[in-house]
Design a protein that fits this description.
- The chain is α/β, with parallel strands linked by helices and about 400 residues long.
- It folds into two domains: about 220 residues, Rossmann fold (3-Layer(aba) Sandwich), CATH 3.40.50.300; about 130 residues, abc- transporter (atp binding component) like domain (Coagulation Factor XIII, Chain A, domain 1, Distorted Sandwich).
- Helices cover about 25% and strands about 35% of the residues.
- A six-stranded mixed sheet has the order 5-6-7-3-8-9, with helices on both faces. It has a five-stranded mixed sheet with strand order 12-20-19-15-16, with no helix packed on it.
- Helix 4 packs across helix 5.
- The chain is globular.
Length: about 400
């Protein structure tokens, strides 16, 4: 009997649209007028509603012991599918049948009570999974050892860092013996060593204990390594259901064929990102690459941290640009309201191997922390070979090149 049976699953959301307002006074006066209008005429509302289908007619079966990777671009419906399978939200149409207990790790903090300690949350999560107190006690030491939080076990989890939160949440989900384990991209919060530890644990519980795992990740190498089967979601539909290797290859082909998106986007009530450009638009290894990054300030603010990240086609972070001290003379300065911050720089020698890269960023102000994993695409090509040397095939390449010189001598 299948562990998971999904038939005709669809999820519809309604998105409200209102006219934007330039000032707080305009927004408050409009809200008061709109409320008075609705009280006088209940059917009259200036907010327009748009239907958005996060999932459309999704059907699949997952057998006991299968490890299935779910991939796709942001907004494809991956997290919505997992939330429905975890009983966090209800579908609009369709049905889901699950055989066995389900443990979910969807986002930092899900399923934990912030006022309770780590110890208390372990027992709370076990009870939610339907386990007896004796069962939880039997696994308790393993959970604490895996999470590496023994010093903070009796501290309320609201004081945990995001990394500590994730370590404890995964340890609980993996050790309390659910028949179905659902893991979203949340593991990306942890450090590289802990990610490898989690991947090894998932591989062990699938192979040795026959449990079913659904795994969503932008780390495509991890999906290929861990999963026997892959699902590719696009605009709420399953467009491919095959081996993990074939699904990853098809996804990479689709991403490479899509045109570059506009990078401009609203970030928060302090900043908007208005542009990112590279010159040349297609970089070449071992050659200079210029970049320009532009923000517009809605209110006076200071960028405290700013980094650009380069991700390879498998979703692995290849390298980083730290712009905190080099963006302008004296570091990053206060940006007055209504002004633009232009950050221009040059990578003297681009030491990335040939391939298609995604560029992301993180920034921090006194009030906000923003992150984006797919801001723009940057194809990087190898320069013309010299001396008749042939480039290595991709499977023999690493993440970065090393700038070096050497000599050879025969005695």
């Amino acid at each position: 009997m299948s562990a998971i049976i999904v038939e005709g699953l669809s999820k519809r959301y309604q998105i409200g649209h209102e006219r934007s307002h330039d000032t707080l006074r305009d927004a408050l006066s409009h809200g008061a007028r709109n409320l008075w209008s609705r009280l006088r005429n209940p059917g009259n509302d200036s907010t327009t509603l748009e239907e958005f289908w996060a999932l459309r007619d999704v059907s699949l079966r997952v057998e006991p012991g299968e490890v299935v990777g779910i991939i796709g671009r942001n907004g494809a419906g991956k997290s919505t599918l997992l939330k429905i399978l975890s009983r966090i939200t209800e579908p609009t149409t369709g049905s889901v049948r699950l055989r066995g207990r389900v443990a979910s790790l969807l986002e930092v903090g899900t399923g934990f009570h912030p006022e309770l300690t780590g110890r208390e949350n372990i027992f709370l999560n076990g009870a939610i999974l339907g386990m007896q107190r004796a069962e939880i006690r039997r696994k308790f030491d393993e959970i604490v050892a895996f999470a590496e939080i023994d010093r903070f076990l009796d501290t309320p989890v609201k004081r945990y860092s995001s990394g500590m939160y994730v370590r404890l949440a995964f340890a609980v989900a993996a050790h309390l013996e659910p028949e179905i384990l659902i893991v979203d991209e949340v593991l990306a919060v942890g450090d590289a060593q802990f990610q490898q530890k989690c991947l090894g644990k998932m591989q062990a519980i699938a192979a040795d204990q026959g449990r079913t795992i659904l795994f969503v990740s932008h780390n495509l190498k991890a999906v290929e390594h861990l999963c026997s089967r892959g699902l590719l979601l696009e605009r709420g539909r399953i467009v491919m259901n095959d081996t993990a290797h074939k699904v990853v290859a098809d996804y990479l082909h689709r991403v490479a064929a899509q045109p570059r998106a506009n990078v401009a986007r609203a970030l928060n009530d302090e900043l908007d990102l208005t542009g990112l450009s590279f010159a040349p638009a297609t970089g070449r290894t071992r050659e200079p690459l210029e970049f320009t990054l532009t923000f517009r300030a809605k209110r006076e603010c200071v960028l405290q941290d700013l980094h650009l990240f380069f991700y390879n086609s498998f979703g692995e972070r290849a390298t980083i640009l730290d712009l905190r001290d080099t963006a302008s003379p004296g570091g990053l300065r206060p940006v007055p309201a209504g002004r633009q911050l232009h950050i221009a720089g040059c990578i003297a020698r681009l030491m990335l191997v040939e391939g298609n890269y995604r560029v992301g960023f993180t920034l921090r102000t006194a009030r906000h922390f923003e992150t984006c994993h797919d801001l723009a695409d940057l194809p990087i090509t190898a320069p013309p070979s010299q001396g008749g040397l042939q480039p290595y095939a991709p499977e023999y390449q690493g993440a970065v090149l090393l700038d070096h010189e050497f000599t050879a001598r025969i005695d």
